[in-house]
Design brief:
Layout (H helix, E strand, L loop, with lengths): L3 H25 L20 H30 L7 H26 L1 H8 L2 H21 L13 H14 L43 H8 L4
Helix pairs in contact: 1-2, 1-5, 3-4, 4-5
Length: 225
Amino acid sequence: VIVTQYGFNLLVISVRLQGVTILTISTIIPSLRPPTCQEGSSSCIQANGTQLGVLHLALYLTALGTGGLKSCVSGFGSDQFDETDKDERARMTTFFNWFYFIVSIGSMAAVTVLVYIEDNLGRRWGYGICACVIVITLILFLSGTKRYRFKKLAGSPLNQIVAVVVAAWKKRKLDLPADSSALFNVDDVAETSFKKKQKLPHSKQFRLVLFFSLSLYHFRILPHD
């Protein structure tokens, strides 16, 4: 079984493609859309249930695929680099610079070039171009499968989030140490995959979460007092 993150990216790209394809088809087949409302007309024929159903299906699939892709594709990109290696860490910075630059170019093209095409040639052309771009994206994504790095997950992130919240709530009445370096960190003792996780610096925001570290901090310090 291929790593979940790769499979999820493949899934959401396919879902997005289905949504945009259905949207394109709905603008091409006359029976899937209401007749054009003539300018100056006082009455227009409304879309029927089938037409609205197809439209909603296309929009929801597109939204679902887009949301899933945005939340996962950047993480999969970062997995292709080893943060412990200086050269690869520099290349990862370059990768994300170009990644967000291309995203910005795509957004600009969507509100300029595609809008112009839809206004002058019709929505079928605008949606059709989007569908073709997604097909090309899917092909390119699949073509690199043998070259990708597949990192094993170090446990479920949802389980870890729940564990932190529960432990922090239970220890909420304890006093935080003045020196944040005294707080317990997994890297202090762990020799597992958790040791490879990036350690984020402590901040003044979300200080409730710091109480999670007290669960072992007090266990470790108090016996020596």
